[in-house]
Amino acid sequence: METAALRLAGVSVGYSGTPVVTGVDLELGPGQRLALVGPNGAGKSTLIKSVLGLADILDGEAIVLDRTPARARELTGYVPQTGNLDSDFPVSVRQVVMMGRYRRLGWWRPARAADRRAVTEALDRVGLADRAGMRFGLLSGGQRQRVLLARAIAARPRLLLLDEPFNGVDAVSQEAIVRVLRELSADGTALVLSTHDLAVARDLADLVCLINGRQWAVGGPGETLMAEPLRRAYGSSAIDLADGRMVLVDL
């Protein structure tokens, strides 16, 4: 039987004993794509950080690739919502992506041929191999996000977590990121991405988890991205089902 990439059973997560998200129950298999959907401040980022062992599991059980979150970290990749690299720092695109190899390489060892090859392959995959020598801070916002994706996949993770990967990203970069994510899942990498974009979730996810302080619904997009579950999760927002599209409107 294939090991689940992620299993959360009755999980509550937060910081210093204070819960941010409660009652999460879901299972994600290898190659599946999970979208965490909810408004800003719903706890999507905290849930992702708990899978990485960076936020506290306050209740329930979290199993990541048959391990605890902290022990599974070397098998996971992470693309943060906002890059923690200073755009003014004089580092090249290639050097940023090489950071994804440090867990295998160690900070004190020189890059090997296998590491350089992994970096080149990751940059080629996101369509930026020709920018390898360019200074990271000179790239557009969408290109920087693609570089951060390349940094994550250079480590060849079995589970990849992305926090709002399409925020502030141009159409060309969004298309490139979606293509890469589909390729990764076809290769067996499980994906978890947070988003408040219902169209992205419907188009990309196999499984959707609606959260806003707690889990409100989990299932396929056809079950969860419907008026009633969305009303429950978003509370004070209304859903206009016009022309087959779902729009959240602040009341």
Q: What's the SSE pattern?
A: EEEHEEHHHHEHEHEEHHEE
DSSP E strands, number: 11
Report the portion of residues in β strands. Answer: 25-35%
For the biggest sheet, the summary is: 6 strands, mixed
Distance between the termini: 48 Å
Mean pLDDT: 90
Q: Gyration radius, to the nearest Å?
A: 18 Å
**What name does CATH use for the topology of the domain at 6-84 and 157-250?**
Rossmann fold
**Approximate helicity band:** 25-40%
CATH superfamily of the domain at 6-84 and 157-250: P-loop containing nucleotide triphosphate hydrolases
Strand arrangement, major sheet: 5-6-7-3-8-9
CATH class of the domain at 6-84 and 157-250: Alpha Beta
| Count of helical regions | 9
Please identify, by name, the CATH architecture of the domain at 6-84 and 157-250. 3-Layer(aba) Sandwich
Low-confidence segments, given as residue ranges, are none
What is the general shape? globular
Concise summary:
The chain is an alpha/beta fold and 251 residues long. Helices cover 31% and strands 29% of the residues.
Your description of this structure?
This protein is of the alpha/beta class and 251 residues long. The chain has a domain at 6-84 and 157-250: P-loop containing nucleotide triphosphate hydrolases (Rossmann fold, 3-Layer(aba) Sandwich). The chain is built from 9 helices and 11 strands. α4 (113-125) packs across α5 (141-153). The longest helix has 16 residues, at 171-186. The radius of gyration is 18 Å and the shape is globular.
